[in-house]
From TrEMBL:
Organism: Desulfatibacillum alkenivorans DSM 16219
Protein name (database record): Nitroreductase
Residue span, 4Fe-4S ferredoxin-type domain: 17-46, 51-80
Sorted UniProt keywords: Flavoprotein, FMN, Iron, Iron-sulfur, Metal-binding, Oxidoreductase
InterPro entries per UniProt: 4Fe4S_Fe-S-bd, 4Fe4S_Fe_S_CS, Nitroreductase, Nitroreductase-like, Nitroreductase/BluB
GO MF annotation: an example: iron-sulfur cluster binding
SUPFAM superfamilies found in the cross-reference section: 4Fe-4S ferredoxins (SSF54862), FMN-dependent nitroreductase-like (SSF55469)
Gene3D superfamilies linked: 3.30.70.20, NADH Oxidase
Pfam name, any one: Nitroreductase
Length: 347
């Protein structure tokens, strides 16, 4: 029982993925640096990709977007995120590490490209879809934005209550304004829960820094109510946004779609909007566009006047999440390895 209450604030016995680069293949393009959602990477003096050695000890989320966006296959990620004890313990929840897609049950006996032609177009989009953070400046035609939203409109929902409303923004000034508001709102979060040396972007973080006692207490209290919001990987991501003035929450994407829910929705409107949003994501990628989920848009909900006057959202609608949308700058969609299936078969 006590195990569930240990090491809530930055668990010490944690294994993190390790970033590795083949210097002979690395061309110093910086795509991995810009595609990392947690900004763990940099180019050294020799223009080779390296971890920046600042926050990577508790920030890597093992998404492998760095490897997917590398044009020369120079990057590999070794290991997985594992917590061995305490509240966040997860090393007992996975079996055998990550594998590439295996929909035809080859059990890793064949390479994806060898059987890709046997898959449906929907399956191909699902397996190749990556979160896109590198966008061209090219505008997305309104017709395509409409097409993406239509895919969401026809998603299933509990009781067919369709609890969604969309705000489609293609005005770059408005997107930038929302970006700055959201950054301002989330800024206090890492300051309340993280050691000060980890928060200052300009000064390399001290890996041995510890949160203060009051921060640990606050961390514990929040973990009782919304544990997913205080996971150390989440805190690292929020810190990236709030402490770097050059970082953009919405990656300078040419379009932003906000998804709002009817708070009176039947069953679980959050789930319904997740289904709706994934319809939109798959449609967008099938059209050659890229997307990225950005739920930090919820920082905007504190500014009720802005939400009402600029976005046109009023009760019963409440902002839940958002999707960036645009043309990817170079190849990013690609297959990556994921944790093995966790399935209890009952036959």
């Amino acid at each position: 029982m006590l195990e569930k209450h240990k090491h809530i604030s930055f668990p010490p016995k944690t294994d993190f993925p390790v970033f590795q680069v083949d210097d002979e293949k690395c061309i110093g393009c910086g795509r991995c640096v810009n595609s990392c959602p947690i900004q763990l990477l940099m180019l050294n003096s020799d223009k080779k990709a390296r971890p920046n050695e600042r926050y990577d000890h508790f920030r890597c989320i093992c998404c492998q977007n760095c490897a997917a966006s590398c044009p020369n296959d120079a990057i590999t990620i070794q290991g997985d995120y594992r917590v061995r004890e305490g509240f966040w313990k997860n090393d007992n929840l996975f079996e055998g590490g990550k594998t590439f897609p295996d929909p035809l049950y080859f059990r890793n006996g064949a390479k994806y490209e060898d059987y890709e032609d046997q898959l449906t177009e929907t399956e191909k989009v699902i397996y190749n879809r990556r979160s896109i953070r590198l966008y061209k400046k090219k505008k997305v035609p309104k017709e395509l934005v409409h097409r993406v939203i239509e895919a969401g409109r026809f998603a299933p929902s509990a009781g067919n209550n369709q609890p969604w409303k969309f705000v489609a923004i293609t005005n770059p000034d408005v997107i930038e304004e929302i970006d700055q508001i959201c950054k301002k709102r989330v800024k206090l979060f890492p300051q309340m829960l993280m050691p000060r040396p980890w928060v200052d972007k300009q000064v390399p973080g001290d890996k041995n820094a510890k949160p203060k006692k009051w921060q640990k207490t606050l961390h514990y209290l929040l973990s009782r109510k919304t544990p997913g919001d205080v996971d150390q990987r989440v805190l690292g991501g929020i810190n990236t946004i709030s402490s770097d003035p050059e970082y953009r929450t919405f990656f300078r994407a040419p379009a932003l779609i906000i998804l709002a829910k009817d708070v009176r929705g039947i069953g679980s409107p959050d789930l319904d909007l997740g289904i709706c949003g994934q319809n939109m994501v798959l449609a967008a990628h099938s059209l050659g566009l890229g997307t990225c989920w950005v739920s930090l848009i919820k920082g905007l909900t504190w500014d009720h006047g802005y939400v009402r006057k600029v976005l046109g959202l009023e009760y019963p609608f409440k902002i839940l999440t958002s999707l960036t949308l645009g043309y990817p700058a170079g190849q990013v969609d690609n297959i990556v390895a994921r944790e093995r299936q966790r399935v209890n078969w009952i036959e």
